[in-house]
Amino acid sequence: MGTGVPRGHLPGVECGSTRARQPDASTPAYGGGVGEVLVVGAGPVGLTTAIELARRGVRCRIVERRPGPHDGTRACTIWQRTLELFDLMGLPVDRLRALGTTFRHRVYDIFGAHEVVLDVSEPDSAHPEPLIVSQEHTEAMLVSHLASLGVSVEWGVPYSGGVEADWVVVAEGARSASRERLGIGWAVSGFPGTQLVQVDARCAPDLPGDPAAVRLFLGPAGSVGSLPLPDGRHRLFISRPGSGVGDPSVEEIRDWARAMTGSPVSLSDPRYNWRAKLYNGIADRYREGRYLLVGDAAHAVIPVNAQGMNTGIQDAVNLGWKLAAVIADKAPESLVDSYEAERRPVAVGLLEQTRRSYWAGTDPAPDPDTMVQLLARNGKRRTLIGMGYPSSPLSVGAQVGSIRPGDRAPYPPGNPVAAGLAQAMRAGGWAVFAFGPSPAASAAAATVAAGRARVLPLVFADGAAYGLRPDEDGLFLVRPDGHVGFAGRLSDVDGAGSYLTTLLG
Ligand SMILES: Cc1cc2nc3c(=O)[nH]c(=O)nc-3n(C[C@H](O)[C@H](O)[C@H](O)COP(=O)(O)OP(=O)(O)OC[C@H]3O[C@@H](n4cnc5c(N)ncnc54)[C@H](O)[C@@H]3O)c2cc1C
After folding, report:
1. ipTM of this complex > 0.95?
2. Phi, psi (degrees; rounded to nearest 5) at 383
3. CA-176 nearest atom, ligand 1
C-alpha cells in the first residue's frame, strides 16, 4: 500500500477498523486512489484536509471521537480568502452564503475619543464580503462534500494511537493528545487576570451604531464586541478583568455591556452564554515523522479576531495538495516540509497580531492614536486576501507586473483569468499562465505543461489582471492552493520547467 515507507505509529489502543469507502468513479483521477492517510478529528480543519486529499484520489479515513456533528454558532466568521478557497475546492459556497449574513464594516469606538470605520470588503474578490454563518452549517457542508467524494466521517471513534497509515494528520484541536504523545512542544502564552464572556442574544434596545456592522467598544474597563448573526441575534463578546467561575449569567453579561458602553442594552432569547480564560498556543514543530499537525492542534489563537478556523482551513489547503503529490505522484517528500515552512510563520504572525489587538482593561491603556494607526495599517489583514508566502522555498523568481512569487494568484470576477484558475484549482492541479502575444505565449505554456497531467496550460493576450502593461509578457506557475509559485517572463520556460521538476519530481 502507498508510499512503501514506515507507517505512522503511536503507542496505545487502536481505533475502530471501519474503512472509508474508496472514491467513486466520478472522483477526478489524481493518482487512482493510492496511499492512505488517517485524519484525526472532524472539526473544520480535519474535514477540509480530508476533502483536499480525497478529491485528489488519496485514500483517507477520518475519525472523530464525538458521536455526531456539533451544533451551534461557534466559529462563525468566514473571511474572504477562505470563501475563495472553498469555491476553488468546488464547495457549494452560494448555498452556505444563503444560510448566513455578510458584513462590510468593523466600527471601533476607541475610548470614546475616536470612531474608526474599517471597510473590510475586497472588491476584487469573487467573495467581496466576509460571511457570518454558524459553524454547524460550515461543517455540515464539509461533511456532505466529503461524503460525495466517497469518505464518510467515522463518528464516535476516539483515536489513541496505533492505527497503521502512511500518514496521520492530527486535527484534534488545541488540546491535542497526539501532539503531547509525540513530544511536540506547545508554547502557551496567556492573558492573566482577564476573561472573555459571551452570549448570542437579541438586543433591544441595542448597542449604539449600525447593527449590521461588527461593532467594538474599547474603554478603560476592557472591550465589548457585537457581531450580527444570521438569525437576528447578536453575539456579544466582552473582554474584561477578573476570572469568574462557571458560565456567566445573561444578566452578568448585560450588566457589563451596559457599564462598559454606557447604553441601556437589554438581552433576550439568549444562547451559548460562555466564559473562557484566553490563551494563545503554538506547536514548536508541525511534523514528527509521519504525523502532521493542522489547525488548532498546531496553533490556538484567541477568538476575538475570528481567525483560528480560517487559518486552520488554510493550513489544510496548503498541506492537502502537497501530501497528495507526495503520495499519489511520488513527489519528493521535502515538499511536505514546506508546509511548516510556510504555515508556521503565518501562525506566529497571527498570534503576535492578536496579542497586540487584545484589550481587556488590565494592561496600561493603549494610546488611542496608536490604535487608530495600527487599524489603518493592519485592519485589512484579517480578510487574508493579502496573505502570501514571499519567503517560502517554494516561491521562485522575481516580481513580474504586480505579482511576486508567493502571492495569491489574482482571479478578478468576470476576467477570463478567473475561469482558468477555477478550472485548474477545481481539478486539484497547477496552472501555467502565459501572458503575451501568441504563438510565443502558447508555445511557452505548452512547453511547461508538456508531459505533466496536473498542469493546465492557459494563454491570455491581456495580462492586466497580473498588473502587466500591454507590451509586457509574463509566465506564472500557480500552485494548487492558488498561490503563485514561479514568476518570470515567457523567455523563462526552462526556469519554470526545472521549478516543477525540482518540486514534483
Ligand atoms: C467562541 C469561539 C468563537 C470562534 N469564532 C471564530 C471565528 O469566527 N472565526 C474563526 O476563524 N475562528 C473562530 N474560532 C476558533 C475556531 O473555533 C477554531 O480555530 C476551529 O474550530 C479549529 O478547528 P480544528 O478543526 O482545528 O479543531 P476543532 O474544531 O477543535 O476540532 C477538533 C476535533 O477533533 C476531535 N478530536 C480530538 N481528539 C480526538 C481524538 N483523539 N480522536 C478523535 N477525534 C478527536 C474533537 O472532538 C473535535 O471535534 C472561535 C472559537 C471559539 C471558542
Report:
1. yes
2. -70, -15
3. 38
The reported pLDDT for the residue numbered 35 is 62
Could you identify the atom of ligand 1 that is nearest to the CA of residue 158? 42
Kindly report the backbone phi and psi dihedral angles of residue 142, in degrees, each rounded to the nearest multiple of 5, phi listed first.
-70, -45
Question: Domains of the chain, with CATH numbers?
Answer: 1-92+134-184+280-357+378-383 (3.50.50.60), 194-277 (3.30.70.2450), 396-504 (3.40.30.120)
β-pair partners for 281: 188, 300
**Residue 296 beta carbon below 6 angstroms from any ligand 1 atom:** yes
| 277-326: pLDDT as tens digits | 999 999 999 999 999 999 999 999 999 889 999 999 999 999 999 999 99
Evaluate the CA torsion angle 135, 136, 139, 141 in order and state its sign.
negative
Residues linked to residue 199 through DSSP beta bridges, in sequence order: 236
In this prediction, residue 14 has a pLDDT band, given cuts at 50, 70 and 90, of: very low
Residue 347 in contact with residue 298, Cβ under 8 Å? yes
Residue 457 Cβ contacting ligand 1 at under 6 Å: no
Which protein residue has the closest C-alpha to ligand 1 atom 4?
75
